[in-house]
Amino acid sequence: MTQATTQKTSDETAGYWFENMSITRAHWLAGMVIFVTFVIEAWEMLILIFSAGAIGAEFNLDTTSIGTLISAIFLGMIPGSLLWGQLASTLGRRKCLMLSIGLYAIFPLLSAFAGSYEQLWWTRFFAGVVLSGALVVSFPLFMELLPVSVRGRATVLLSAGWPVGTLVAVGVTMALGDLGWRLVLGVSTVAALWVLAIYVFVPESAYWLSEKGRSSYAAKVVNRLSGGSLTPTQVRPVDTAQNAMPFWNIFRGKTLRITIITTIVNFCFAWGYWGMTSWLPTLLAEKGLSVNQGLEFIALSALFMFPGYISASYLTGKMGRKKVMVIYVALATLAGIGFATASNNVQLYGWNFTLSFFSLGAWGIWNTWQGEVYNTATRGPGVAWGIMLQRVANTAAPVIIGIVLARSGFMPTVLFISAFLAVTFLASLLLPETEGKRLE
């Protein structure tokens, strides 16, 4: 059925209306706003890594203390993800996104005025608690705004906000670094202004609204997103039973199997990626690169993420989530092994760029796929659980890998990190395909 033939009023589910919807200006505007939101998230998660040397020098920190400081924001995201996951199911996706971005901007300012290592650690911790809300809801909200026909390809491209955020963090560090790390961290507070764009251009999820019994409001969202072409009187939920404890339902019934698999993927994939990223400047220094050369290396690596995302976006529409994910993770694992065994700078650059291409392309698929395997009632909690596990890995990896690096050197450390990508590959084989299917 085409969009032109669905002018009549109806009470079909959200999945029906989004299956019969075309891309409109409203989708583009909402998508661009959520994309910038993800850029802000990536910027803040990475910015302290590039200033760690200056912070360590001021507070006289050893490598273990620096690793612990890097981990503080991710440690805060562990309880924060669970909190926001519940709120995403009760308050709504859009409201959580606005609250998260609006409240987050307090903490970069507090970080800039930290008088001690302990004060800085706690401001980073609470920044993580607040910022995790945006991480929990960005992808579920975006995919719930999109027509079924483009959901996979468009959501993968949303992940390209990560390398943009990486480039912003590198650019801010290089531009303001001579003025001190406090200004580098504090400038992030301007992100609070973006909450106005979210308020104006991003609607609430029609899936969430109908699941909460707000069918008329959901119908207005469908009408807005379709540019007025679709005119439902209400949007019927798939399951009208009210879910009082949506978080715990991800551990019940047939959903439990999905949660076990996503648990493995989220933890191992995050460990494999972040374990490399958090210590990349140090790993590069082991190979003789200066601080500025290391930053340039990271910036070039970020540029190679874009074709990774674009290719993954194209291929997921042709081959589906599963095939693209497992192929890209397998190739990222091989690239990690190549990076570990590189004997000169040409090989070092080549293998790392290959790793950036395939690992971030796979992340683009995963950011989409992990939300699609849950239904509307459990999507927020399911994604929140996954992000919490990613942050557990993000918290532990810098500390443990720092110990491994100190004891074993470059090659064993990178091989150790790559082993987690191999486990990710195996676990991904067990998940169902979701390309072209309605969200439940």
Describe the 3D structure:
It is built from 19 helices and no strands. It has a single domain (12-428), classed as Up-down Bundle (Growth Hormone, Chain: A), CATH 1.20.1250.20. The longest helix is centred in the first third of the chain and has 35 residues, at 25-59. It is mainly α and 440 residues long. It has helices at residues 14-19, 25-59, 63-90, 93-104, 106-112, 117-145, 151-158, 161-176, 181-186, 195-201, 206-211, 215-225, 255-278, 280-286, 291-319, 321-340, 345-372, 376-408, 410-428.
Structural class: mainly alpha
Question: What radius of gyration results from the CA coordinates?
Answer: 21 Å
Using the 3D structure, state the CATH architecture: Up-down Bundle
Topology-level CATH name: Growth Hormone, Chain: A
Question: What is the CATH domain class?
Answer: Mainly Alpha
Span of the ends, CA to CA:
19 Å
Q: Provide the helix percentage.
A: over 70%
The main sheet comes to: none
Quote the beta fraction: under 5%
The count of β-strands is: 0
- Give the overall shape: globular
Unreliable stretches covering 5 or more consecutive residues:
1-9
How many domains, as an integer? 1
N-to-C order of helices and strands = HHHHHHHHHHHHHHHHHHH
**Name of the CATH superfamily:** MFS general substrate transporter like domains
Please state the average pLDDT score.
84
Number of helices: 19
